[in-house]
Specification:
Number of strands: 20
Structural class: mainly beta
Distance between the termini: 48 Å
Number of helices: 0
Radius of gyration: 15 Å
Helix content: under 10%
Strand content: over 45%
Oligomer: single chain
Amino acid sequence: MLFRSGGVALNGPIDLGSAALSLETAGPVTFTGGLKATQFALGGGSFAATGTIDATLVNQGATIRPGNSPGLLTINGNFMQGSGGTLEMEIGGTGAGQYDRIAISGSAELGGTLSVIPYAGYAGAAGDGVALLAYASVSGDFASRTYAGSGSWTTSAGDRKSTRLNSSHVA
């Protein structure tokens, strides 16, 4: 199934069974609830999502914004981000529910850009760290990383089961 439009709102549950869904938009896509398909491909625009995707999620050129300022997106399947994709994650602290997360039951193939944006005035403190992505296995890495706000941040593969954001100091 292919959709091309300026913007789409998907409110689950949506069950496409063995079909694949491809969105090629210039505008925003919002997703809440659940989606079941074999593959869900994003070709452009922005994708703000909460809930569960039972499919392989492929980001070929969109900006994915998980959670609901901030929140959790669960992918029961694999996640692939190509060179044209951006993953935009918010962080407002290190406690539960204070930062965006993506929980992936399968593998993560990373590429493109990781963009981290402070939320609710959070700047981080030395030693702060959170797991932005959790997965069963990983290949590749983000080609670029951007960090808005103050402080110095790095990402690491942790135990190769997660991608962590770590603060080394506050500016």
